[in-house]
Design brief:
Layout (H helix, E strand, L loop, with lengths): L4 H7 L30 H8 L3 E6 L4 E5 L5 H13 L4 E8 L1 H5 L5 E5 L1 H8 L5 H4 L4 E3 L2 E6 L2 H6 L4 H15 L3
Length: about 180
């Protein structure tokens, strides 16, 4: 059976939301010269300096998780399964947190899930693999960095590494 474009989009549940737009050409006044640097307003720079992330804390206040702000439903399900695997019950879940919010907490360990979140929190530009496998420090609290749930959905082989990172975080709280 052959579906026309509209039937196909409806079947994929993309209608009525999806709309095809014609490409819009930028007006000549909006095109910057190649050697001209864009001007960024100070308020935009200030907002960039306050990086927003999702912050979850455990019910015993020992764990804090710094995550991407939003996940799709599959990534959210994986995240919840990961938390269950390490017996974490979430007490607080803030989608628009920042470093100030995190600094007000006193967890025993911070788990950062995602490369850009780790770079922002630790003020370093390493790759995620360079951050992994060893604790770092933020405000004298150990920080363990691992893969984001979205990354793990696309790279199943990294799930074992993420489990190792969660075990490392657990050992920081309760050393052997």
């Amino acid at each position: 059976m052959s579906l026309n474009r509209e039937a196909l989009l409806r079947e994929l549940e993309l209608l009525p939301v999806w709309q095809l737009h014609q490409p819009v050409s930028a007006p000549a006044s909006a095109v910057l010269a190649q050697d001209a640097a864009p001007v960024i307003a100070p308020e935009v720079e200030a907002k960039k300096a306050i990086h927003q992330f999702r912050l979850m804390t455990s019910d015993d206040a020992q764990w804090a998780f710094v995550l991407e702000q939003r996940h799709d439903s599959d990534a959210e399900a994986l995240l919840q399964n990961m938390l269950k695997a390490v017996a974490i019950k979430v007490a607080q879940d803030s989608f628009d947190a920042n470093r100030v919010d995190l600094n007000q907490l006193t967890p025993k360990v911070i788990v950062v899930m995602g490369e850009s979140e780790a770079q922002q929190l630790l003020s370093q530009t390493q790759t995620l693999d360079a951050f992994r496998s060893k604790p770092h420090q933020h405000q004298s609290v150990p920080v363990v960095v691992t893969y984001s749930a979205s990354h793990l959905l696309l790279n199943l082989a990294d799930k074992a590494k993420a489990w190792e990172d969660l075990c490392l975080a657990r050992s920081v709280i309760t050393p052997l």
